[in-house]
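At this stage, I put together a protein sequence along with its fold in token form, as given directly below:
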Amino acid sequence: MGAAKNIWALANAEDAANDAEQIPYSSFVVDTSLPLPLMIPRIIELCKDLFKNWGELDDSLFSVERVSGGITNLLLKVSVKEDTNKEVSVTVRLYGPNTEYVINREREILAIKYLSAAGFGAKLLGGFGNGMVQSFINARTLEPSDMREQKIAAQIARELGKFHKVDIPGSKEPQLWVDILKFYEKASTLTFEEPDKQKLFETISFEELHTEIIELREFTGLLNAPVVFAHNDLLSGNFMLNDEEEKLYLIDFEYGSYNYRGFDIGNHFNEYAGYDCDYSLYPSKEEQYHFIKHYLQPDKPDEVSIAEVESVFVETDAYKLASHLYWAIWAIIQARMSPIEFEYLGYFFLRYNEYKKQKPLTFSLVTSHLSASM
């Protein structure tokens, strides 16, 4: 885990240069394959090592529960009774094994500090060999069906508009095609130990896939889409809502990078379908317009011109295709590398087939829009 330590050392070196608070780091590694009862003592030991004021507390003062587990990470809530009247909770995020093949952890950790300072997500409290500790957010995780409710959709749009205005130091080059081609190079060289998976894998035409990547890269380039710091993974599980306070939180920035605005929004619309990829749930044009208006002009959404809304609508429709390619190829790598029980190869085909279904419709829409704009 030397690489992880170096990343945190780099983050702290930057903080020291700016007289900012240092982020504690522990070399502890937690075995994510353990059942929770066996993992709990290790989690408590980790927290005591990271936070010295907890070091002498009895283990009985700690409680650990699973918050959620997506198809990449495991989240745990750790609560500590610091004294008789005060209980403190933190979130321990354990990275999924082999996620370094699809996630740039250095990029993530450096971005989190600036995003946290801008009011996004949980505060970064500490790091360890295969994860991080953040402040606990008292809110519920959204479901895909929540995202299409008009009030929540408007909240998400407003929050995303603010998120896209955050300046993160470093290269501002969009990473979409860099990442997709990196995924492609890795995915195309894999082999599977399980005969059934290998047989299914061999039905994928990587030559065709590469042709589609290059064609779509050139086609979307015609739109000159704005480049912003994008979240890149705006599924329902990365939004939390405190219903009582009506406060929405955007969380988990592990895929974040500078990228095309249309990709972030188009990817979000694709996520209305959920992990089951039920694309009958993709937002209607009216629902997309509602979102785009609140994204562009949160205070006066009805004053946004139809021409401006339509332009973002077309941009988003083009990049939703890139979203399908991105996560389809990502799924091939996960099928080989991830120990999490999920039909990753099946997910590849669901995303890629939807890409092929939507491609002629989107190409026609974008071509018509570009012709009318000349």
